[in-house]
Design goal:
heterodimer; A: 50s Ribosomal Protein L17, Chain: A; 3-stranded antiparallel beta sheet; elongated; B: alpha+beta; Proliferating Cell Nuclear Antigen; 9-stranded antiparallel beta sheet; 5-stranded antiparallel beta sheet; DNA polymerase delta subunit 3 (chain A); POLD3_sf (chain A)
Amino acid sequence: MTVTDDKLLKLEEFVYDVQRTITPRWLSHELGIPLIETNSLLKKFVKNEEKKARWKDVKVIFAVTGESKTSRSHFEVALATSEDVDKVKARFRNCAAEIYCLHPSHASVKPTASILNANQEHLSESVCDLGKYDTIRSKISKQPRTNDEVEELRKAAFKTSESLGFIKNQVASKPTKANSEKTVNKSTAVKNEEVAVTRSFSDPIQKKTSPTKKPTNPKNALSAMFSKQAEKNKTAPPKQASLPVEVEVTAEVKEEAISLPENKKSEDIPKPREAQKRKPTKDSKGSSKPPAKKKKEETKKTQRKRIIALLSDSEEESDDEANDKRLRADDEEVVTVQKPDLESSDEEEVVPSTPLPAKEPRPASGKHKVKQWVEKTFLDDEGFMVTEKVIEEIEIDEDGTEETERTSPIKPPTPKKEQKDEKEKENKENTKKNEEKSHGKGRPKKPVATSSGKQSSIMNFFSKAK
Amino acid sequence: MFEARLTQGSLLKKVMEAIRELLNEASFDCSENGIQLQAMDNSHVSLVSLNMGSEGFDKFRCDRNLTMGMNLASLSKILKCASNSDAITLKAQDDPDTVTFTFESENNERVSDYSMKLINLDQEHLGIPDTEYSCVVKMPSADFARICKDLSQFGDCITISCTKEGIKFSVAGDIGTGNVKLAQTANVDKESEAVTVEMQEPVSLTFACRYLNHFTKATPLSEQVQLSLSADVPLVVEYKIGEFGHIRYYLAPKIDEDD
């Protein structure tokens, strides 16, 4: 039995026994084969099965892509059953039809593994997209689902995911995301409605979950990574805060992290209801402002730390004096928080991945911190004098006096010459050893048999003939 | 002028097959004594030494010593054009640019000739000292080929251990281990089927399977193979070419990394 036959058998099992809707992407994931191969596999499967009696229960949905004949500029995608595919194709110019999914008529629309494994955003989308399934279903069976059916399905989806025990945290953390969405898209009322809808789904589950519980889904590695980044940002702000580019990056990461459910724990991010409570108070302060300004304020509020880090003293002043004052007050707060962190990070002796430039002046008012390569000589364990170049951070006052703060353990990159010398030494030692072995004590009578030794060259045994 | 005629053309074809996989190019040294070849493989792990004495040829004439550098792939192509029963004649001028091969069928009904361009090769010759080996094993060449082929499935290295009882080939790999022991045969009808061990001291050496398998391509040349082993010295695998020559393969052993 060939590999393809094996895969076809599996596919047969999925369609007839498991009775699930099969998309090429899912199948590719399930069988661990490339998507192109999956498409051809599906085609082959359909071709093989078309004539069989049991095939009548399975519908093939095609995705027809191409340029619409009605409008030239548009590239459209349409879904069609095998019966309608020719009709749909007629609507297109330069079209291609690929199998979108195989749909057994008894297949239940349940959250697939991909939905279960997806993050909250995907989940909400998938659940909301039950309507899409509806369209497909209606094309197949000509019996559109009622709203009640869809609602039941949504509930079932949440129940199954809840029973699997992973979704709790994601759903519980949903309000954070919703909040972030709110802050960003507050102006659009429609999107707010969407958020409200999704929250209405998540609320009952939120009651069951403890807000402090950390998500334990190991598959959500990307989000976990972001959460780690966010925690880093929270506990230790970036060391090189004076560098605008890097700060921008970290700030962006932070912004992204806020949108992720894992950051629910962070105290900096207000909970949705708290946020809702806060907003009116702030709004009440600046109630006389136009809505555009309000929006600006909102964005500044969410990103104020980044702005603080980004902009220097020459930051453009805002229009409103009151706001300006408040921002400056925040500014001061952040600076007072960040400074000790910098020092503490210094104490931790964080080793930078790349060697730092020789001098790195810092824009401090009275003192300048400068990193310098300094030669240090000391006795090592074997009693040899060792001279090493190390990075020292020196604080220089304006009057020129120096004060050494710390010595980093970074060794300077050894020059090529030194490396060469070391290699030569090693080689010499090795050759000496070999000579001693060959000349000194004679050959061992029984050489030890090795299963995988080093392959020697024939040149080592035979000398060149003249 | 160089001219050498070999009635048993198949011998030359077999010699070619025996070295073709190991070498890409080689210099054939022609002298009044015969044709010699010495060349290392590309990785300088093994060495091939071929000697075909002039007495083995029907007609042998070599006015001046000459070296003919040949591309073995090209030579192989030409020799494939010869039938096993053909007589092969090599001809070259004293300072040759080309060498001519003439193939004559048994009844001289068909004569074909091919000329091949020679190449300049700057190959170093190694002085191979006369060594008294601790162990000299003679065994059927087909058995040796079979053992090497079988054991190379298990791992990259074969350990050849020789004691007075016999010779043991062992291999260890990911899937497991393999051992083949050959005891000295007491009574055999044919001398070529016997396994004989001449031993001064026991030896155990490890060699790369890949090269051993290349060496076994010379199996059609001779029914018997001779393995000569000494500690810390290359293995010699020798096949006789009729009564007038031999092909010897030298293979450097694998050395323990601790050394």
